[in-house]
Amino acid sequence: MEQAAIDWSRVRRVLVVRLRSIGDTVLSTPSLIALKRFLPEAKVDVLLEDWVAPVLDGFDAVDDVLTVGAGAISKLAALKEIRRRKYDVVLNLHGGTTATFFSFASGARHRVGYEHYQYSFLYNHLLSSAADFWKREKTHSAEQQLALLGFVGVPVDDRPKSRLAISEKASDSLEHKFYEQEKKRPDELGKFALIHPAAAFKTKEWPSENFARTAEFLREQGLSTVAVAAKDEQQILENVRSKSGVPIHAFNNFTLPEITALASKAALFVGNDSGIAHIAAAVGTPSVVIFGSSNRDHWSPWTDAPNEIVFEEFPCQPCPGHECAAFDEPQCILTLPAEKVFAAIERVLNSKEKAG
Predict the structure, then answer these.
(1) Residues 305-319: what's their mean pLDDT?
(2) Which helix (H) or strand (E) holds 194?
(3) Which helix (H) or strand (E) segment is 111 a member of?
(4) How far apart are CA 294 and CA 196, in angstroms?
(5) Looking at the 3D structure of the chain, how many domains does it have?
């Protein structure tokens, strides 16, 4: 594998394309950090889907966050803005068709992607694989993105960890919403754990009764519990609260920046493999993340904070996760005992105390 040649001394504008989810966006921050420190005088922008873009509010390693929505009008507007900015380099961290379209249509002289991307002929710098770059088979999502930068000469050997900013605006609005519902502010709870009992697929969703037991266990450890989920996941929050023998402060109305601010205040995060878990990791919150169908090598917390992943080993893992093809129900997540999570919580809390 030869390094692709870009004369970085002549580069003034760079666009990073990272469409898709919360976790994908959070795990792009190591690449954005590496790129900005390498090109402190250049403009480094990122293109995100509009609904997830607030995750990077206040993030200091990008100059501008460009957004695109689902409709044709939004895509056309995004394209016009991209072409207006006349980027020298475009790095596509995700190989989907839409991302490739924006990368090619940008008009950038240098377009960087992977050989396995669909329509790879539209790029002129192609990396064979992250495994080839890092010289090992298993790589994390953050490493796969960093490899593209390293391939074209950006220093990435230290593999920066994910990082998010806490905006003052988000902190203020979080306190307002929290007080409005609970008649107290988050800081008045004492030490608390943030739990996220929802997930994108049932193959990643640990049963609500287990999260209820976890809240009871956390109380024994001196931690109260705050639970978050989206508005359309309210039933999950209600299930956890109704099955728990201890109070749970549950919210379905926090924005992504507010969740980031809340996670930064928590003594611990416990939840399913999800974008919220990556947010917690990115603000340095000790974490216990529960895995079912997901690729653990690819999606584990990318952080220096104390953390553990908890799982039951099945030969069918990892799988796409949309549905369980091996069993009537996703046994990988349903059979994971609460005691295994409790033990991980104790270890992470103990390691946090030793580090502190």
Answers:
(1) 96
(2) strand 192-196
(3) strand 110-114
(4) 16
(5) 2
Q: How far apart are CA 196 and CA 275, in angstroms?
A: 10
Final residue before a domain boundary, out of 98, 126, 151: 151
Question: pTM score, two decimals?
Answer: 0.96
Contact between 226 and 189 under an 8 Å Cβ cutoff? The reply is yes
Same structural domain, 177 and 291: yes
Which residue range(s) make up the domain with 38?
8-151
Which SS3 state, helix, strand or coil, does residue 212 take? helix
pLDDT in tens, 111-146: 999 999 999 999 999 999 999 999 999 999 999 999
Compute the C-alpha angle 333/335/339, nearest 5°. 100
Distance, in Å, from the CA atom of 110 to the CA atom of 156, rounded to the nearest integer, reads 19
Environment class of 66 (CB within 10 Å of its CB; exposed 0-12, middle 13-18, buried 19+): buried
The verdict on 253 and 308 lying in the same domain is yes
- Beta strand ranges found along 252-303 (DSSP E): 268-272, 287-290
Per-residue pLDDT tens digits for 166-225: 999 999 999 999 999 999 999 999 999 999 999 999 999 999 999 999 999 999 999 999
Query: Cα angle vertex 265, ends 259, 270, to 5°?
Result: 70
- Tens of pLDDT, residue by residue over 64-110, are 999 999 999 999 999 999 999 999 999 999 888 999 999 999 999 99
Residue 349 to residue 209: CA distance in whole angstroms: 22
CATH, residue 251: 3.40.50.2000
Number of residues written out for the chain? 356
100 and 68 together in one domain: yes
Boundary (domain end) residue, out of 101, 117, 151:
151
Phi, psi of 138 (to 5 degrees): -90, 130
